[in-house]
Specification:
The N and C termini lie far apart (49 Å). 30% of the residues lie in helices and 19% in strands. The protein has eleven helices and 16 strands.
């Protein structure tokens, strides 16, 4: 099986297929490998597996990340439940997984005649945050707009020396990263794939460095993430981890004092993007890549007022909201 997003592990004649990043399966009609899908991708995968073993005994293990759908047309957890239902497969899922907000018709799936209970199959917190699992909870509160919860979690993080740092100076952020990543540790610049006005800061999200070189070469190699010269976006970095990250925020995802809004640069100006959940999940991915520490860089925008795509209000709104949520500005 081939996939340009998730990783499918399949050994010839094996009855067990393990699909990592399984939430990323596309809907029917989405163009994949230059052809529109004739059916939902999850349905196609189950049908292919059944075709190989028509008499039964095949197992598909779908490893699904919650709130990790970051592309248009990705169907999330429900894709597999619906595909199993349509294909007559029995399925196992944990009660905690079924309780996630993104799963609709929860009662239907819970009492489904083909459903078998899966115990201990739900990972509540990402294991990457071995110092403090509250980092992922803080990100969730931030994205959901729960200021009080985020501020409280930030205080808890600070007590465990896991402060979420803020800066408006990219050079300061780079110095922070180089001070912290010692020996074989990794640090890197990451940003949204829609963060195209970071070009004014010398960061070009449309330039996609080879991810293997970026993640694996030593700091003495100019291709390495540790040089802090090139930036990776959420599509490249999803599923990967850094020891320290510098999250570079742009005007594609703003807070207006009341709620988050999403935007895409079209032509000479930003346009509203209706797919707010895709934008939220993209920033959720960016904010959860670091194992040990993170600094968020928020540009000041164009102080002259000439560049309308870098209006200072776009960035000030994000800056103030992050501070309300407990992130702390650091002095270089």
């Amino acid at each position: 099986f081939l996939s340009e997003r998730g990783r499918i592990h399949h050994q010839e004649d094996s009855r067990i297929l393990v699909f990592d990043e399984a939430q990323r399966t596309y809907e029917k009609g989405r163009v994949v490998l230059n052809k529109p899908l004739p059916d939902h991708e999850a349905d196609l995968i189950l049908a292919a597996q059944r075709g190989m073993f028509p008499h039964g005994g095949a197992v598909v293990v779908a490893l699904v990340g919650h709130n990790q759908a970051i592309n248009r047309g990705e169907r999330g957890i429900k894709a597999w439940l619906e595909a199993a239902d349509r294909g007559g497969w029995s399925f196992s899922i944990d009660d905690e997984t079924l309780s996630l907000a993104e799963i609709t018709e929860r009662d239907k799936w819970s009492a489904h005649p083909k459903r078998k209970h899966l115990f201990h199959g739900h990972l509540r917190q990402s294991m990457r945050f071995y110092r403090n699992s509250a980092v992922e909870e803080w990100v969730g509160a931030l994205i959901d707009g729960r200021i009080a919860d985020a501020a409280s979690l930030a205080t808890q993080l600070g007590k465990h020396e896991s402060v979420i740092w803020l800066t408006r100076n990219l050079s300061s952020a780079r110095r922070w990263g180089k001070r912290h990543a010692i020996g074989g540790q990794r640090v890197g610049l990451i940003a949204s794939g829609q963060a195209r006005r970071l070009a004014a800061e010398g960061l070009f999200v449309d330039h996609k460095p080879d991810i293997a070189d970026w993640m694996l070469t030593p700091g003495s190699d100019i291709r390495s993430s540790n040089t802090l010269e090139t930036v990776q976006n959420q599509y490249q970095i999803q599923g990967l981890e850094l020891d320290y990250s510098i999250v570079c925020w742009d005007a594609d995802f703003r807070h207006n004092g009341t709620e988050w809004t999403a935007h895409k640069l079209k032509g000479e100006d930003w346009q509203n993007d209706s797919l707010i959940n895709v934008a939220k999940n993209g920033y959720r991915v960016l904010l959860t890549r670091a194992r040990k520490g993170m600094v968020i860089f928020v540009p000041k925008g164009d102080l002259s007022g000439e560049d309308k795509t870098r209006n200072v209000d776009f960035y000030d709104g994000v800056w103030e909201f992050l501070k309300k949520c407990g992130a702390l500005e650091f002095e270089d």
